[in-house]
Specification:
The complex is a heterodimer. Helices cover 0% and strands 47% of the residues of chain A. By secondary structure, chain A is mainly β. The termini of chain A are far apart. Chain B starts with a strand and ends with a strand. Classes of the chains: A mainly beta, B mainly beta. Chains A and B meet through β5 and β10 of A and β4, β5, β9 and β10 of B.
């Protein structure tokens, strides 16, 4: 079974530029998550999709971050414009069920973003 | 905000020794999970313990859960150099729309 795929693996941009990350979840997984992980901290959930609908985006800075999951499969996360504090690893994860006692999540390798 | 807080923040042991990490959380949970993250990689799920379970084993891993104290511990027995990684607890809260909330992690170094 193929894992969660993410691209690019690394990205360096200057502040005020735009950037987009792509995620392809495990086949058949209905739930998809985007996390931000700042160096030395645990992952923080940015947005959670169930199929192509948003379940939770309470911690997504909506003035600059946007995400979509068209057709309920692949997802993209965009930052426009980027700030220095957006430097982090952006992790995508997927799971087969929404919550309950089976909410094991499978993570991709992440995209390391550096904003200069 | 982060619900789970791990203790200690960093741990250095000799190969063959046991490593114990603790996690405390604040609200009622459906389950608690432990994940491992090797440097520069994504997280890997290790073990899930449900709120009605007290102890669970998986290979060299032993997890306990005390819901009255809102705490969990992860024990890695007979550690190996390959166990060097960061370990995170994550809680699936009853009131958090099924999202996982991660702690800040314990960085484990196993010296050969």
């Amino acid at each position: 079974e193929a894992g969660v795929a993410q691209s690019p693996r690394y990205k360096i941009i200057e502040k005020r530029q735009s950037v987009a990350f792509w995620c392809n979840p495990i086949s058949g997984h209905a739930t998809l998550y985007w996390y931000q992980q700042i160096l030395g901290q645990g992952p923080k959930l940015l947005i959670q999709f169930q199929n192509n609908g948003v379940v939770d985006d309470s911690q997504l800075p909506k003035d600059r971050f946007s995400a979509e999951r068209l057709k309920g499969v692949d997802s993209t996360l965009k930052i426009q414009p980027a700030k220095l504090e957006d430097s982090a690893v952006y992790l995508c994860a997927s799971s087969s069920r929404l919550g309950g006692i089976y909410n094991e999540q499978f993570f991709g390798p992440g995209t390391r973003l550096t904003v200069l | 905000s982060q619900q789970g807080e791990e203790d200690p923040q960093a741990l250095s042991i000799q190969e063959g020794e046991n490593a114990t990490m603790n996690c405390s959380y604040k609200t009622s949970i459906n389950n608690l999970q432990w994940y491992r993250q090797n440097s520069g990689r994504g997280l890997v799920h290790l073990i899930l313990i449900r709120s009605n379970e007290r102890e669970k084993h998986s290979g060299r891993l032993r997890v306990t859960l005390d819901t009255s104290k809102k705490s969990s511990s992860l024990l890695i027995t007979a550690s190996r150099a390959a166990d060097t990684a960061s370990y995170f607890c994550a809680t699936d809260g009853m009131d958090s729309s099924y999202k996982l909330i991660f702690g800040s992690g314990t960085r484990l170094l196993v010296r050969p």
